[in-house]
Records
---
Amino acid sequence: MAQSKLAEGLIIVAASYENDGCPIQALHCYQALVNQVLPPDVEVKARLNLARLMLEHTFNVKEACNHLLRAQSQSRSLIGCYCIKYEVADRLATAQQLLGDEAGELATYAAAAELWQSAQGSGEWAAVCVWACRLLQRQAAAHHRAGRPREAEAAAGQALAFAERAGGGAAAAQQRVTALLLQAQLALDRWDDAAADAAIKQLNGVLGAAAAAAAADSGGGGGGAGGGGGGGVLGPTGFLTALLHYNVLQVLYMLRAGKVVEVVKDDKPPQQPPLSPEEADAPGVPPPPQVANLDATWKQLAAAQSGASSSAAAAAAPYELPGMCLEPLVCLVAALALRPGGGRPRLTEAYLQRGLAAVEQLKRRAGLADGDGGGGGADEEGLAPQRLAPAGTALRLQLMLLQCRAQGLLARGELAAAREEVLRAQALCERHPRLLGPQLPAAHLLTGQYCAATGEHAAAAAHFQAARQHAPNHAAAAVASVLEAAAHLSMDDAMQAAAAAAAGPHHHPGQAAAAGPGPGLARAIEALGPFYAGAVAAPGSAPPRLGGLEDSAAALASAACLAQQGDLPAANTLLSKALRTAHRRLGHMQLVCGVLNDLALSFLSPQLLDSHSALEAARSATAFARAAGDLWAEARSKRAVAAVMQREGGAAAAAGNTVEADKSAAAAREAVEAAARREARVAESVAAAKADSGRHGYAAGWRLSAMVQG
């Protein structure tokens, strides 16, 4: 009797301490409680609460796992108590995940999957369905982390089925929404457009119904998935969290499908004249509606969460949708949508800077040391298990933001500033090899782009090869393959330019073509591999599925290889296809300029001799390159204009039309001078980047010796 009274007193005191915000004192009470001889149900609850406090407020994950294993063993003797059993399994899986015990985590999910069968018909059935849905979502996430997409898809489908069987209520509604979000996320990751589209359509209906219910409860008007309101059964915070994730996934899906123009289009009236690039990017001009909607939803969510307790937010967080990393994610998605067009660099830079500032806050929350080793944080080796996941999320976001910023600077020719961002990305990977190991291919890709911009084509090809060989998916492999092929072809161009310079002013441009393709062509075709348009697929193999950007880039690179082999009709067909996608759907100005410049050179070839089409392509490339601030593309287009005018002038002189010949010669000289001015600016930018030979050499040669030794 005395022992029973002692146990009851410890339970009351522990609950009081926890309610008063003293979790460590509550933990000590539960520690004393589990040392007593207790009935099985009391012991299970005590060990569950003790482990929960350990996981939330200490770094003693192994001891928490031991308590949960003991609680799981004791719970088998309980009749009913299904929710307690599921909660034990949920906490145990968390501890096992933190300890890196994948086999134990999956075994926990398998054991929990047997509970619902005996719970059918009980009074806890609706709650059991909610718990089963949550654990199946976590199981799907575990399979996804381990690279098992089919198992992840199956578990996510089962989770949605349980959410449907759970009936009404806030918990069931939230689990259904998160199960659909998970399905959409997994579908995007495995490039299953049909499944992603179906999940996003279902989400639109569910969130629209929640918004309409909330509006009806408050007496307001209806709303769709983009509306606000109280969120109905989801509650305001739950609704906004789901809505923001839905909007992020929808924008990513549109970018993947090549609908970039739809994401960044403005909602101005059709009769209003378009703004100039300077006017469109002026301060005070609002972002495109899709981007502005993302940002507005995040701000609403941040305001709603400011009054919620952190423990309540953590308890309600679905499988892997942490709320604290949403601001840098929103900024990254906005920058990814805006950067291809190149028309709003100020707004893009503002999103990137804001995202990087938010990431620094995430790193401090995760306990990471600052870049200079100060700030009182820890290196990745010293991080507690609970902090590894948020630290990895923050670092991956930081690396992607740095990559996006560096690529924007490279496109604008600001090579010295781009070099510093490349060095920051490299240093980040060096400081966190465990957490950022899978991101090394992306860092090599960025380094290769810097090398290509500064004329280090051999180093660029080596970095792109490393990115291609270790690419995590077909899309990343395609981008790396295209860039590697371009680097090999650029080495041939550099050799031909050097030969032309050595030959002096009597060198004729056609001599290089007569000499045939250089050694880089074979390497370029090898680098493209299955993405080369002329490649023969292996028997029984399907061509790799690519997005609009990757498909257009592969077509551009394949066309360059085909043109070098003299197959201009096939090359032009590919270029026309790439132009339609790059201009009408992607709005990717760099890609458009590359296609137009190649088309101009193709039309100038002896096989076609279509000066009018060549001039139109070159002038269009000049306009797009100027709008995007791409000096390289603008210089190439000016050279193409000069070549057209020289040909036109020669034809006019041969026909005795001296007026047209002089006019064409003057236009050619003007184009050559304009190209020379832009090439001089590029040379100045390259010289500025190489002025600090130590920093440039380190950036360009990063990990090259390790690749050679490997």
Note: Residues 412-504+516-534+548-709 form a domain with the Serine Threonine Protein Phosphatase 5, Tetratricopeptide repeat fold (CATH 1.25.40.10).
---
Amino acid sequence: MYDQTFLLQYQDENGSWQSFNSTQVLEKDKDGNPTKYLPARLRLSDHNWNQSTQEVSLPDFGKYVNEKAEDEVALRLIPAKETMSGKTGDTATFRLDDVGFGKKASDYFYSDGTSMATPMVTGIAGLLSTKFGTDQRNADRAAEICARIKGGVNRDDAKDLKDMSVSDGFVDAGAAFDDAQCVPVLNDLTIDGDTATLKGYFFGTQGTVSVGGQNAAVRSWDANTIAFTLPDGVKGKQEVVVTPANKAYGRDFFSITPDTVNYQTLSAPNLDYGELSGYPLTSADLYPLAAAATDNTLIYSGLVLETNQIKLAAYDFQTKVWSDVPLPENTFVSLMAAGKTKFYMQCVVMNAEDPQNVTSTQTLATYDPAAKKWSQVETVLPTGASLVVYQDKLLAVGGDDSDGNATKSVRIIDPTTGKTTGTLAELPEGRSSAMVSASGNTLVVQGGKNGTAKTGDDAITYTNTMTFDGKNWTTHTDKFLTKDNPEFDKDQTLTYALTAVNGGAVAVGPVQNLGKNSMLDTWDFNAKDGAWAGDAGRLYSQTKTTQNIGAASGNQFYVLGYTGRNTEPMVFRSTTVDYTGPTADPSGDQPTPPGPSPSVNPSPTAAPADSGTTGKGTNAGTGLFGGGSGIAMTATALLLLAAGGGLVLYRRRKG
């Protein structure tokens, strides 16, 4: 329709269409009186309606009234060349939405691209939201509305949009309301061996599936899920086309590679945490903080950001069932470690009997999952210290001194009294809020800060690793687990689960070559040479995961990750590792400390002024997640904020 002129016409009292003049004069007589006017018109060029007529010259406009509608005047625009062509085909339809009267034309123009598509699609989404998904959780409702916009496609009038988008057309608001007209929308593809499972919407009556142009044998088919056998030899990124027997096709592109390699897929947690304003809260709403595992149980802690509640979830290795672990009343958990059969957690217990004078007590809690029994003792651990069980002793590693600087101390803590009973060899350099994990004689300290409260130019975030072999500490110069590492894909959320293994560590999360056959997301650290290397024999998830958290038990490293997919928001998998766990639970039978304990900075009983800031990263235990200091910082912030009587955290809502 570009570079075309449209004439403006009115319908006279006889029903005939007549052109009329603008006020723009083309010719005058010898006396200067106008004799010819430029016709009233509009011209379209470069995506915009350009006004060609300042005013319409039509005296006594009211007499031009259509006799069939006494209070209306009929106007139309027609192409000056009789035929209107456009980018959607050889001919096009022009619809005049509105006409304004006056001396200034309205700012009304044609446009395409995202600037025009966004308000159109938003409007359709608003219309769909009035009818669909009103009884669904918000994420499911949004997913269905999104699918209807994609599935309600007009291909008949979009002759040159083939292969311009996965829908091969443009949005059709009317079709989006009709299941029969909505074509299949393909959302997620997971692969297990030679079986692929496709999830989406509007799959209709069973028809055919093709992958890379080859037909696939269908195993099962319903409105939202199709299982089929992958054709032989198909790999890499391929077009998947679903053609129901009763409607048109739908398509999308997926990487035909196993969703996981040498990991066992387990049941992810899906616990019910009530609702907020009609929005159901489940395990997928938890912001994970820490994880640890005994011989029989894994427990992870998480924060429900919408309600500021700490939750604990336990996975039984024998029954393979998740369950909720009720916390003692008014108790906040941050740090976590595990022995052979029991868990040890740094907590803050709130005393809120007087709302005007909320006080708190720092405790060391012990939880026995077999007896489902809690016990707590008062303790004073340094702010930013990390808990870990090493050689059957409970350690508090690093943390802040009384001046807010990270210390080198490694304290042995009696879980029955909460007191320091001895020390291990000091760290080579001070660390606060570090990731700490142990396996046999190997103790790993990864990342951390030079003080939890330090900011600006005074703050240092470490990215290297330190290891202890039972006799000596080694400071490595790896600096590997950082967003600046060129081996990782750019602009990714760098969170990871980490566990010590004998002679090193394993981290899961950072991605190289996302979506490719050469994709890596599992990384091995060798303490002997101080180097990390990608493990090509293992792949945790073909989909990038974030907020990864994990813990080792037996010969398995268990990792929980968030996919960002509505159909499968979390994955829980395990892989075989060379791990040696505690042989007993820590006890009070520890050596007497050689002298006074170093000065420490215990978690305060009042929140600092800037304590509303939270970070992303990890916490300590037998396996943890995130960047080197972030979640440990978050855990510390929880203690500070809880101690101050308030907790306010924010996040972007999923879905």
Note: Confidence is low (pLDDT under 50) at residues 46-54, 86-91, 590-626, 639-655.
---
Amino acid sequence: MQQRLFKILLSIGLLLITSLGLGFGYLIHLHTQEFLDAEVASLHQGIQERVTFLDEITQREDTYLDQRLQVLLPNIYRLLTADQTPLAQVSLDRLFLIKNMYAEYGQLDIYILDPHSNIIQTTNPKELGVHLASYGTFRERIFDRLQTQTLYIDRFSTSAVEGSLRKFAFYRPKTSSDYTLEISIDFYSYLEKRYSKEYTELFKPSAFNTFVQTNPFAYYIDLYLVKAHSAFSLIHQNHQMSQENIRKVQALGYLEKQEGNFLKVYQLLKEANPDEILGHTLILETEFNLQNLNRLRNALILGSVLLSLALLVMMLFILRARLHKDFIEPLTQLKSNLEQLSQGHYLLSLPEFKYEFKDIAAAFVQMSHAVQARELALLEARQVLEQRVQERTLALQEAKSYAESLARTDMLTQLPNRRYLEEHFEYLIRDQNTYPLTLVIFDLDFFKKVNDTYGHHLGDQVLIHVGNLGSSLIQAPAMLGRLGGEEFVILLPNMHKQAAWILMDELRIHVSQTPVYVSGQPPIYVTLSAGVVTVTQKEKTQASFKHLLRCADEALYQAKASGRNCVRLYTPN
């Protein structure tokens, strides 16, 4: 009992330690998750502020540069065509000469476009021969505008390949041919000339790597520029973003994916806005290394579990000592007394108990006396009950036998009824030693006339008389039974049809010569007609009680047709 109680306490303790461990683990998980969420939010907020700041600076510089280009493009055009040289025939040397004159604008490139928007001369050899009209909506947005205006300055455009910002401007005076002058200015090099190299570094995508160095969990950062359902990396050119992730971020604004100890977070920094300078969709991708955080969380959870386990062990030892003294010893004594009581020792001497066990001991003594009295009463009651059970069992057996007899016996003649005849036939048909098996059906000739003449009471006496005559002649294993009305059936195992015919003819003669004597009435003579059918073992598969009864009934009909008071054998067809 002591071990069982200790196991119960141990189970409760384990349940408590498990609950405490789960509770501490859940709290630690919540705190670490909150800490991680705060770090992610802080990092994203810093990057968002940086992007907003860059948008403001870019907007300001774009406005300032527009004002300068309105003067710069006509000046460059006059320098290129100073000696009446057509724009289409300007040499490359002159282009580079003028480019160097305006080095204050940083990386400035000059282009000459033919009427079909092909670059026929440029200071950037990589773009010589490029057909600008093939670049999306260039003709609709820029080239067609030069049909109605002389100067067009485009806003800053991002280069997904180089990760750069460039400013494009176009000039076509009405007095010239259809050739167009185009210049482009690199935003970063322009800022270096206008301010300083350190100031320009703040605008480059690589400057965002400082956020990785200041965040304890950030592994890397990348910015994706989304154009036409494709994302181009601005920091790590070898990184790619799937179209599925692009759609999810654009729809939800935020997406998290965790693989092992690494957590990837995608956040929509900017949605496409044609009214802004950098009007493309901008997505921030941040990957966090959670290995150190997970280690710290697991260490805290393990520490809490070990501490709870130590407290549990201490608590169990204290509880065990108190339980043994206050509960185990009294319960052990009570158990010993219960064993004596179970062996029939009702006079018990109990020691002194403390606490509630004193009341339990007193109640225990009262119980022993009550049990003794009740056992004596139960013994007497059991003897009476056993006697009644024996009497009821005997009565039930007699009633059962009588019910079975009623269910299988004809109440008038006390012969087997149709149900018993069918059951006995099924038994005979399955027995291999009962063939040939003969069935005889006979009824009393003109029995209705007997009922009409003498009444049904005398008719019943006639049926009983015929049944008694048949029973005296038909011996086991044959069976005589009443089918119903004035019809009787005889089952004759191991008897050929000729022997059955002789037996039935003997019964016919015996019935016709033995009258029924009733007080106050003249003797009543009756005759019978019978039909006989026999089945062999080969025919038993097709034989059934109803089938043989129908065949015997046909033979009985032949006997009736032959003048009654005779026996006929069944002949097929």
Note: The CA atoms of residues 54 and 283 lie 15 Å apart.
---
Amino acid sequence: MLQNPSQSCTLAAALTITAEEELPIARVDTLIAIAETFERLGDMKRADATVDLAKQAAEDIGISIGTEQKMVRIVGPMTGVGRTEEAVEAAHALKDRFLKADALGTIALTQARMGNMDAAQATLDMIVEPLLALRYAVRMIENLAENGVDTNAIPVGPLTERIQGIENVLLKALGETRLAVIQAKRGETEEAIKLRDQAALALETLSLNHERARIYAGLALAAHMLGDMEMYEDYANRAANLAGGVRSDYDRALAIGDAVAALSVGGHVDRAIDLASRVTDLRAQSRLIDQLSRRSSAHAAVAPLAEHILKAVADHDERFERDRARLAVAQALARVEAIQSAAQVIADIETDDDQAQAWRFWRAS
């Protein structure tokens, strides 16, 4: 639950104003943000009602693929308010098999965040696209490793078995580094070192810079948790150097995201922001700050990265893209408890009447 609930409610109120958009495809994003905000506040009644509004807005899009893409995101807060069975039914109703896998993965991640690990693993088992099932398993382990979950309550055995069955070298190694962090937190030092060393073996096989950068970043997090600062500095430096040289926009963003988290956990925030600034596409920047705000190791980088993105927003030609980016920044700031900054970003949404009303809501708090 967020601190300063009155300010957080004001943030939700400001978001509510921005939901009055002409295009349902834009309105649904804001409604999802509102639902997630209320859920984090523990206001399940309002979160539940907002989920219904988001679902209706998604259905109003009138284009099946557009509706399905939004439903992938809606099933998360839907699960968060206790409507898991409905969320699973909605996921299975999606016609696109990849979106269906993403929706089930989103549900599993939410269940894990709520501590329902048996249910989360059962949901992962529903994903019939093998590679996506593996990716969500690794993301689940990453979330558990980084986000304040009671590590003694994490079923390490079943998660380890799931990771050991992965044939994809990169995903297996990433999972092992995250499990190493969990085991180090639990005080299982020998097991953590074993997992870290197993993950490092992937470097003998992987040759692409973006893959090696991600492995080094994971190894850096494990080394930091184990208290091996010399090894941490070496791995974090290697991750940053490799990530900055990746050419593919998609792969560069993933590698930089992992490297930024590795740098930030050791206090190298300035270098982390410099590295993150190499992601120049506005949508990619929005995805990056969203991902980093969900990782406790990267929280120190979120506020300065938000400032960098907001400067880039001012130079973008399309209002819709500007507002989409501002919404992503506001959500990221809210996740790291920068509520006042988040509300100010919402107040800058570019409909004059909405901006004035949002700002009045904020000042009234």
Note: Residues 31 and 109 are 20 Å apart (CA to CA).
